[in-house]
Design brief:
This protein is mainly α and about 325 residues long. Helices cover about 80% and strands about 0% of the residues. The protein has 16 helices and no strands. Helix 5 packs antiparallel against helix 12 and helix 9 crosses helix 10.
């Protein structure tokens, strides 16, 4: 007798491997960027004026991946989208305030953590949602809507919650987000509509171009606070880890409390827990201080690693559930086949 496993779809297996490689290699590239910023700080500081341009290119790449159908999902399935986006802009900012209080963070670091919490969803969240067997269509729409709302909600929330730690220019921050987020995303969508065939050929390359842009942003951000990283690094890592993991947990619980199916719960967890930390780091460097940009740089590495672990845990949960649901007759039938 031999035990036979059902054949796996080769295309799905290839897509899984590619997604895992992306999620695991992204933080490595960002770590390389951080190391370059630390060890070659004077050189990287020469590029400090390029942060906004790089952010704009990253967001343009995100716009190229979007289609009108991604936004049409709001009308078809409004509840999970509204719940997820609302949780994104309520849970993560309040968690950031809680973590800052819990760890008694210095004012600059507290302001940086809060800015990360007020940022829209991270662009890597769609890949992590796919790996976690979440609802990818909902994930893409949540990220898109939270990004389009960022010019209003991110500066307002940051000014309200982080203004106690340092003076902030909310209107200027809002205009920056319009310039480096909203305009490039809309431009990317329009280019995809006009040159759909060309963009489709470029789609596999776009995530790698985006992560290279974020790695350069991290290098520039780290170079601005290289002299204080050793002193503040472990505290920032602890704050980022607590913030991110609590975001995953509360996002999942909110999905469950609102009656969403398991795939949507997982997507809500990922969307709430993962932030556009590259944007946060760039804004902090421009409107706060180099040290305040450090939480965004660390989050850029951490949330990809934690997202890969979360996806693995979700897949193991599915495997255990499948094993429990297998009846003795099913097992005997597979053994005879």
């Amino acid at each position: 007798m031999s035990s036979a496993q059902p054949p796996r779809d080769p295309a799905a297996a290839t897509a899984d491997r590619a997604a895992y490689v992306a999620v695991l290699v992204f933080p490595v590239l960002i770590l390389v960027g951080g190391a370059a910023g630390y060890f070659f700080a004077p050189i990287m500081q020469l590029a400090s004026g390029w942060v906004n341009t790089l952010l704009g290119l990253v967001m343009f790449g995100m716009g190229l991946t979007l289609r009108p159908v991604d936004f049409a999902l709001v009308a078809k399935r409004p509840v999970p989208i509204v719940v997820g986006v609302a949780a994104q802009y309520i849970v993560m900012p309040l968690l950031a305030v809680f973590v800052s209080w819990l760890l008694q963070l210095p004012p600059e670091l507290a302001a940086g953590v809060i800015l990360v919490g007020c940022a829209p969803g991270g662009t890597a969240s769609n890949v992590v949602s796919y790996l976690a067997r979440g609802d990818v269509a909902v994930s893409v729409t949540m990220t898109s809507i939270s990004t389009l709302l960022a010019p209003v909600l991110t500066p307002l929330l940051t000014l309200w919650l982080a203004g106690q730690y340092m003076p902030l220019d909310g209107p200027s921050m809002a205009m920056s987000i319009v310039t480096i987020v909203l305009v490039p995303v809309i431009a990317g969508i329009l280019v995809r509509l006009a040159l759909s065939r060309l963009v489709k050929r470029l789609l596999p390359v776009l995530p790698w171009l985006s992560v290279l842009g974020i790695a350069l942003i991290v290098a520039i951000v780290v170079s601005g606070s290289a002299d204080r990283i050793i002193q503040a690094g472990l505290l920032v890592l602890l704050a980022v880890a607590i913030h991110n993991v609590l975001g995953y947990a509360l996002g999942y619980l909110i999905g469950r409390a609102t009656g969403q199916p398991v795939p949507v719960r997982r997507t809500t967890a990922v969307e709430v827990g993962m932030q556009n930390s590259g944007l946060a780091a760039g804004l902090a460097a421009q409107y706060m201080s180099p040290l305040a940009a450090l939480p965004g740089a660390v989050f850029s590495v951490w949330h990809n690693l934690s997202g890969a672990v979360l996806a693995l845990l979700c897949r193991r949960a599915d495997a255990r559930a499948a094993a429990r649901s297998t009846t003795p007759d099913d097992a005997a039938a597979r053994t005879r086949s």
